[in-house]
Amino acid sequence: MGQHRKIALLIDSCPAHSKDCGENLKNVKVIFFPNNCTSKLQPLDLGIIKNLKMHYWKRMLKEIISALEKNETVQENIDLRKAIAELYKVWKFDVTAKTIRNCFKKGGFSNQTDGIDSDDEYVILADLKEKWKTGEGNGRITDDATLSNF
């Protein structure tokens, strides 16, 4: 409280976002992305959402394989409460600050360098593929289910 920080609020140019939304804010400067460039500048679109989804599906696949190994019934549908709880865990424990920094860098918001975030996409995908093979190998994943379909 009382820190008087200067804040830049970056908003895409969606028509639902009011152009005068920051008029009464003293320490907040509202900056709108130019039209049709959100996917090139928005850090969420530059990898954060993809990373979150990959970690989410990794958790879900681990749960399915665990249930299969214990000969338990695999829950076909996930209710909204469970999905939100799992997404919370993914955001809190799996999506790294490094991933977020790298996505901001991709959008041109930083000149710092952390190197390539090898922790993320390729490692997660390789881990998912390995877990899928485990499920196929023990005969518990049947029919023509593929990891890419999942």
Automatic annotation (TrEMBL):
Segments forming domain DDE-1: 3-104
Domain of life: Eukaryota
Transmembrane residue ranges: none
Pfam families: DDE_1
UniProt-recorded Gene Ontology molecular function terms: DNA binding
A single Gene Ontology CC term: nucleus
Signal sequence extent: none
InterPro entries per UniProt: CenT-Element_Derived, DDE_SF_endonuclease_dom
This protein's name: DDE-1 domain-containing protein
